[in-house]
Amino acid sequence: MRRSLILLLSVLLVIGGVGGWFTTVAARDRGGAGHGSIEPDAVRPAAAGDNGDVANWYIVEVGKRADPGIVADRLTQSLGISVSHVYRHGFTGFAANIPPDKLAAVRAAKNVRSVDPDEPVQVDGAPGGSFEPCSDAGNVGSQNVPTGICRIQADKNSTAMIDGVDERVDADVAVVDTGIDQAAANWDLNARPGIDCTGGNDPMDDGDGHGTHVAGTIGALDNDHGVVGVAPGVRLWSVKVFDDAGRGSVRTVLCGLNWVLDQATNGVKMDVVNMSLSSPPKNRPIDDRHCGKRAHDDFQKGVCAVYKAGVTVVVAAGNYAADARFVRPAAYRQVIAVSALSDNDGTPANDRFASFSDYGKPIDLAAPGVDILSLKPPDNQPTGKMLQTLSGTSMAAPHVSGAAALYIAGHRGDGALTPAAVKQALRDHREQIKLRKDPDKRNEGVVNVNDGPPWGQTGKSRKSR
Ligand SMILES: [Ca+2]
Ligand SMILES: [Ca+2]
Ligand SMILES: [Ca+2]
Ligand SMILES: [Ca+2]
Predict the structure, then answer these.
(1) pLDDT at residue 14 tops 50
(2) Strand pairing class (387-391; 372-375)
């Protein structure tokens, strides 16, 4: 029911030209764009406008000792392919539009290791329904405490300190999404520009609203207006991989992960990456247990590189009501995959597994994902209107990203935390609950950040899987 409603809404939105939720963008011929000079690591103009178009687009991996920019240049000049992104960190290669009659030549070219088709990736959120803030000490002035904050007990976390006073959580979270709106950031976020992978040049432009909403759930400021996030005031880095129509692909996501890896060595090391996105289910399990090398999955190669750099990756389960083993990136064992639950009062009462949410063995935790209130780009309206509710596993994942940021910020003195350690800690402290309507027999439990034991549990009953 919920899924059909979402699909209906998405159709209406597309007709209205407001957003691009769930649309699989039709493949179109790109023509021969972008033959000009090539700058290393730049996002090239050829990518502009058609970020979800994958017809004739490929991800090319080059040999470890080769310079991907030089290989891309050489093939651009000799074969007339057009290159959109160069990847230098972890996964080394480039994305290119390759006409069918040039494909064999690229595959056979020197230093080319693999050539895999690109695929569309989409955000996992859609408009939600009505909302009542939960009763809480953080409801100061006009600030709303969203139900998800109470549901996972972020208001009972001493690192979050939710009380209407702006103290900020010390962690860095990359929001790989549609961008983070500058006006919303000025109003109620501690956000900063990362990279624009869509052919534009403004990570702080969110023409869609999805990324701004996700950012607010992770870390909206604790003050007297807007909303408050799970990890209030955490540093949020906008990594824009979807254009204003919500269109993206593996090549734009890899560009975002490449930036995260570049930052790990040459800038600010991210603690957490949030990816509220997925590609449509395959007809076979995704994870090849070899970081994508056997399955020729460049998406997983990129995720593994980030994981090995010590960055916790949190992803949406996907909204296909499908087994997450078939859905990228939720299927990857390197990520924390988050399913969605429906909650309307901030307590475990009357909760159920969200009908649209993917499920199954890869899911690590559930989090609130129905009718979630968060920030919205202003649309020329007064700032009081910069809020909206959205639903989706896109809204569940940022609750867990915020939880990971709280955990990492609260354990700074304990040495470097590996992504596996962060995942285990969040799993160990989860609320062990059987959600009604959960399609599988595995109770992933609900993320919980109470300083004490989670809802309904004594300290002794906690255990890991
Ligand atoms: Ca506070
Ligand atoms: Ca606020
Ligand atoms: Ca409830
Ligand atoms: Ca389950």
Answers:
(1) no
(2) antiparallel
CA of 399 to the centre of ligand 3 (A): 15
CA 187–ligand 2 middle distance (angstroms): 8
Distance 165 CA to ligand 2 centre (A): 9
Structure confidence at residue 383 as a pLDDT band (50, 70, 90): low
User: Last residue of a domain, which of 67, 86, 118?
Assistant: 118
pLDDT for 373 beyond 90: yes
Catalytic residue among 177, 181, 208, 298: 177
Domain span at residue 66 reads 45-118
- The model's confidence at residue 136, banded by pLDDT at 50, 70 and 90, is confident
DSSP 115-165: EEE--EEEE--EE-----PPP-TT--TT-B--HHHHHTTGGG-TTT--SSS
What's the CA gap between 402 and 390, in Å, rounded? 17
Q: Is 103 a member of any domain?
A: yes
Question: pLDDT category, 257, cuts 50, 70, 90?
Answer: very high
Q: Which ligand is nearest to the CA of 362?
A: 4
CATH number of the domain to which 153 belongs: 3.40.50.200
Centroid of ligand 1 to alpha carbon of 155 (angstroms)? 10
Q: Which residue has the higher pLDDT, 399 or 33?
A: 399
89 a catalytic residue: no
pLDDT for position 245: 82
Task: Choose among 293, 123, 298, 305: nearest CA to 215.
Answer: 123
The rounded distance, in Å, linking the Cα atoms of 279 and 394 is 13
pLDDT at res. 385: 76
Task: Please check the confidence at residue 46 and state whether its pLDDT lies above 70.
Answer: no
Respond yes or no: is residue 177 known to be catalytic: yes
Element (H, E) at 44: none
Is residue 210 part of the annotated active site? The answer reads yes
Q: Please tell me the distance between residue 137's alpha carbon and the centre of ligand 1 in angstroms.
A: 10
Give pLDDT, residue 102.
Answer: 97
Work out the average pLDDT over 380-400: 86
Ligand closest to the CA atom of residue 166: 1
Omega before 281 within 30 of 0, i.e. cis: no
In a domain, 196, yes or no: yes
What is the average per-residue pLDDT within 192-205? 95
Q: For the chain, what is the domain count?
A: 2
In this structure, are 83 and 138 located in the same domain? no
pTM of the predicted model over 0.85:
yes
145 with 173, same domain?
A: yes
Mean pLDDT, rounded, for 257-272: 95
Domain assignment present for 39: no
Q: Which of 85, 89, 210, 399 is catalytic?
A: 210
